[in-house]
Design a protein that fits this description.
706 residues, mainly beta, Leucine-rich repeat, LRR (right-handed beta-alpha superhelix), disordered N terminus
Length: 706
């Protein structure tokens, strides 16, 4: 029962792919010809010539063979199979009267074929029927033909992939002549093929050269109509044209002039792909959709004007337009597709209007190596995969205010990008997002960000300052690897784990502050064993995972809380440990770019910040390394290294003087606060200095946790 069911299913599948052809016997060779006889009566008759094995220059396809009436040339079951199999001797073919069908590719691939004579009995000529006959110069379509260039399996075009152009590869064909009495097709004095009423241009002979003027009344340019017409210099389209089909002008490499008339509503997939000679394109506002690859690889295209009305720029629309220097995107455009401007290496500036609400996730502006300025639509929520990958001259870009994600490789190797503002609302910065942005010197990651993925800022070699979100829990592996100018980093209290190689080869890193007592730091390298996921590749090599701070040879100080994992890490790595304390002003935690620290049991803080938050104006004398702070009638004078300070003319001796620590001036917080008439208390349990002062508004934490 199961076997019968399986056979039934197989038959049903075959029937879907090859519908109602009838069952054929094995092919039979008779003289120079090979034929197949179908056993039942079908739409296509009984007998078909499927191969020619002779060597004659002039061949007549017979109307009968071995007593059978021949009704077709080629095999309806096979796509694009020529009966001549690239014969290089045939010069002429005469098809006998009575034959009705020429199947897909049946008379193609004859390199020496000069002429074909078709009888009035022919009703059907399949797709690519005469393809790759480069010496064919002219052909007459009989009055009997009802179907030209249609696939035998139109419902299965995705399964059968072939060129539907009847004359693809007929590079010397200059004219197609249609019998005047044909009820379905027509031609003109230029030898171009149309439908009967000349509203649809079907195909232009590939051998046409110079200028072609399409007559008035044409509303549709068919798929592949001018494809590979490499000798055409100019095509004039009438105002009435409404649609330009798929691959209509693809690879018209010498086409230098083309005006798309106002009124055209659609430009099909690959419509002008590979038209390397076109230097300028104007797309009228009547065109709502620029379909995929419509202008791909126009190597000499320098400017594109899009009129208001265009709504969608499709996938790969302008990919590979290597000389495109300018393009205006009107504020009618709503969406831009994948790879739309990839490899536009001469494009210098791009303004994406706020009308754009959707940009596809893949490689949209990848390798636009001359692009220096981008103005993004503020209505884009996610920056996608490899959007600006390799845009080495990108200097200026705004990340949209509503953005929630910066995708993988988004700014990879944008080596000229010196600054970027990540807006509040971004929650994720994904793998390699800013890798190789060697001009970045500072990055501020707002508190909305809860995830920074691996390699995100790897090899940002000039990055000097990083301010991390206080919502991230993990600093992923290699996140800041190779950031050689990074000298210090403050790890927020939210971080509970720092993965391997997170700060690998940050060779100038001297200090790290850990604000969570329990943050786990990967101290020792380890090996992930080979995984035999793909046996054909012999498995994967072993992966050596390096410690978090591998190669940070100048790391000398770890700041953290006493008894914390930071202290244990410092001990294990033989790095100096400095305990940190908290400082509060009127119940608000103060955040410093260099953390408060205990020196000889005194809390020392950055000079400028503490004076400013306490409301004092400061004046620095670099020559004598002295600061003068003024708040009303109070004047405080301090000198680096001098334990004696002056408060409104009164001298006070300090236990620990102001001092330089890693090029930063630190001052004792109690002496400063009390000198400026504030009250100071010490909370030993929480290691917090508590400052209160009436009439002073304490600074509040901003979006970055400052």
């Amino acid at each position: 029962m199961k076997q019968s069911l399986a056979i039934t299913i197989i038959i049903a599948i075959i029937a879907g792919i090859f519908p109602a052809l009838g069952v054929s016997a094995a092919s039979v060779v008779s003289g120079d010809f090979e034929y197949v006889v179908f056993e039942d009566s079908s739409l296509w008759g009984c007998t078909h010539i499927v191969a020619y094995h002779g060597t004659a220059e002039n061949v007549i396809i017979p109307s009968t063979i071995d007593g059978y009436t021949v009704t077709g040339i080629g095999h309806p079951n096979y796509s694009n199979k020529s009966i001549f199999e690239k014969n290089e001797t045939i010069k002429s073919v005469i098809v006998s009267d009575g034959i009705t069908h020429i199947w897909n590719g049946a008379l193609g691939d004859c390199k020496t074929l000069i002429s074909i004579n078709l009888p009035d009995s022919i009703t059907h000529i399949g797709a690519a029927a005469f393809q790759n006959c480069p010496e064919l110069k002219s052909i007459i379509i009989p009055r009997s033909v009802a179907e030209l260039g249609k696939s035998h399996f139109p419902e299965n075009d995705s399964y059968y992939s072939y060129n539907n152009n009847l004359f693809a590869g007929c590079t010397n064909l200059t004219e197609i002549i249609v019998d005047e009495d044909n009820a379905n097709y027509s031609s003109d004095e230029q030898g171009i093929l149309y439908n009967k009423d000349k509203t649809k241009l079907i195909v232009c002979p590939l051998g046409k050269s110079g200028t072609v003027k399409i007559p008035d009344g044409i509303t549709e340019i068919s798929d592949e109509a001018f494809r590979d017409c490499m000798n055409l210099l100019e095509v004039t389209l009438p105002d009435g044209v409404q649609s330009i089909g798929r691959s209509a002008f693809e690879k018209c490499t010498n086409l230098t002039e083309m005006t798309i008339p106002d009124g055209v509503e659609s430009i099909g997939i690959d419509a002008f792909r590979g038209c390397a000679g076109l230097a300028k394109i104007t797309i009228p506002g009547s065109v709502k959709v620029i379909d995929s690859s419509a202008f791909e690889n126009l190597e000499n295209l320098k400017s594109v004007t899009m009129e208001y009305g265009v709504e969608d720029i499709g996938h790969e629309a302008f990919e590979g337009c290597t000389n495109l220097m300018s393009i205006n995107i009107p504020d009618s455009v709503k969406s831009i597709g994948n790879y739309a401007f990839k490899d536009c290496v001469s494009l210098t500036e791009l303004i994406i209007p706020d009308s754009v609400i959707s940009i596809a996730p893949m490689c949209v502006f990848e390798n636009c190596t001359s692009l220096s300025r981008v103005r993004m639509s503020d209505n884009i929520a996610e920056l996608g995969f490899r959007w600006f990958y390799g845009c080495i001259n990108l200097k200026s870009i705004n990340i949209p205010k509503i953005a929630t994600e910066i995708g993988q490789f988004t700014f990879y190797d944008c080596s000229s990008l010196a600054s970027v503002e990540i807006p509040i609302g971004v929650t994720r910065i994904l793998d390699y997002a800013f890798k190789g942005c060697t001009s970045l010197t500072e990055i501020v990651i707002p508190n909305s960000v809860n995830r920074i993925s691996c390699y995100a800022f790897m090899e940002c070699t000039n990055l000097e300052s990083v301010r991390l979100s206080n919502r991230i829990s993990t600093i992923d592996h290699h996140t800041f690897s190779g950031c050689k100018h990074l000298t210090s980093v403050d790890i927020p209290v939210s971080v509970t784990e720092m993965k391997y190689a997170a700060f690998e080869n940050c060779t100038n890193l001297t200090s790290v502050t850990l604000n969570n007592s329990n943050t786990v730091i990967e101290e020792n390298g380890y090996i992930i064993p080979a995984l035999d996921i793909n046996p054909r590749d012999g498995g994967h090599p072993e992966i050596v995972c390096l410690p978090t701070f591998d190669g940070c040879d100048n790391l000398s100080i770890i700041y953290g809380f006493s008894g914390s994992t930071a202290q244990a890490f410092a001990y294990n790595q033989r790095i100096n440990f400095m305990p940190i304390v908290k400082v509060q002003l009127n119940e608000v935690n103060l955040t410093f770019d260099v953390p408060p620290q205990l020196i000889s049991d005194r809390t020392m803080v950055p000079m400028r910040k503490i004076f400013e938050v306490l409301g004092a104006d400061i004046e620095w004398n670099d020559e004598i390394q002295t600061v003068t702070a003024t708040n009303g009638e109070i004047v405080v004078i301090m000198q680096i290294g001098n334990p004696i300070i002056t408060v409104s003319g009164k001298s006070i001796t300090l236990d620990v003087p102001p001092q330089l620590v890693h090029d930063r001036t630190l001052v004792p917080v109690r002496a400063v606060a009390e000198g400026l008439a504030a009250n100071v208390e010490w909370d030993g349990e929480n290691q917090t200095v508590i400052i209160t002062k009436e009439g002073l508004t304490a600074p509040v934490s901003d979006e970055y946790g400052l």
